[in-house]
Every structure is written in structure tokens, then in C-alpha cells.
Amino acid sequence: MGCRQFCVRPPEDGLVFLVDDDIVYPPDYCDGLTRAHEALAPTQTIVGVHGVIYPEYWDGAVQSRLVMTFNKALEKSMFVNQLGTGTVAFHSSLYPHLEEMASAARFVDVRFAKLAYERGVPMVCIRRPAGWLKQIDVQESVYTTFTAKSDPVVLQEVLSFGGVSKLPVDQSALRAADEAMSAIGT
Predict the structure, then answer these.
(1) Measured between alpha carbons, how far is 135 from 137 in angstroms, rounded to an integer?
(2) Within a domain: 122
């Protein structure tokens, strides 16, 4: 995906939806993310469908991450350390500047999560049924060409925001997001 989705400035007041070219989105995608985002208001929150929770002292081993894959069901919304930028919605005031993202062309999800953490903005992976989003098979992906390999720059960035201890503790807001998402994909 690179940084191309951060090359334009969004409107000053509105929701931004980022998408990816290897995902098929359902007709109620924007509506579902909007409802989840509004349910978490007035808190500035980033909502998404592909979430990652890192172990406390991540060593770069991708298999040690807890990944809520976008095309699989998630029974309850949960706070995560990182969201896949091809599956997110957030208020336009949180849109990062290209200068903040440019040096992270192969790891935009990590950089986006780091910036959110530094700004005190929680990330919520939303509840959804299996198959709500569908993957388009591609021969090469960022995961196979970059993520699956350990990179020291990425490791340092993840250590700055990753780990269960860095997730918000108050789970009550997540119930509202779950209720907002109860009708999607049906």
C-alpha cells in the first residue's frame, strides 16, 4: 500500500475511510465503521477491522502477535495496538501528514499505530461476522515481502506502542461499539 493514501488532505471535519486494493468491501462497510465510530464518541478513536496486539517485549517474530484477521469473525470489539490501514475509519483531525508517513512506506500500519499511541488515540478492532471483508489473493503482499521479515526500525517503533500494558483499560466503551455493529453483514 505504501504511503499513497496519505498524499492528500481530507476535509477538516469528517470521517476518513482508508481502503486497500486486495480487499473486497461489503456494501455496509462505511455505514458499519461509522456506527462503531459514533458509538465510541466523543472519544477520538480509530476503528478498524484488522487488528494486532503485540506481546509486551516483542522480538520481531510475527507468529508471536495476536492478529484479528479482517476476513475472520470477531465476537467482541477490542482495543488493539495496531490496525491495518486498509480497514480503518477515523476523524479527519487524526489524518497524519505525509511527512510523518513518508519514511514508513513498507510499514505504514506500524507508523500509523505509533502516531495514534503518541497522540493518546485508542484503536478498536470492531466486532464483525466472518467474511464481512474478503481477501483478494495476490502473489506478493507487504506481509510476504516485508512484514514476515524482522526489521530493526520496525521493531523499535513497535516497542514504543506495543504490548498489552499499553492498551486502554476501560472496556465499557466497547459494548457500545458491539451494539452498533450488531446488524452488519446480515
Answers:
(1) 6
(2) yes
pLDDT tier at 181 (50, 70, 90 boundaries)? confident
Percentages helix, strand, coil for the chain (3-state, rounded to 5) are: 35, 20, 45
pLDDT for residue 4 is more than 60: no
Number of domains, the chain? 1
Is residue 134 included in any domain, yes or no?
A: yes
Give the chain's end-to-end CA distance (angstroms, integer). 30
pLDDT digits (tens, 9 = 90+) for 16-64: 999 998 999 999 999 999 999 999 987 789 999 999 999 998 888 888 9
Decide if 186 is inside a domain: no
Task: Please give the Cα distance from 36 to 45 (Å, whole number).
Answer: 10
Domain that holds residue 63: 4-180
Residue 185 lies in a domain: no
CB 46 within 8 A of CB 122: yes
Residue 43, CA distances (Å) to 13, 32, 39, 50 in order:
15, 18, 9, 20
Pairing of strands 66-68, 134-135: unpaired
Confidence of residue 146 (pLDDT cuts 50, 70, 90): low
Q: Tell how strand 46-48 and strand 123-125 pair up.
A: parallel
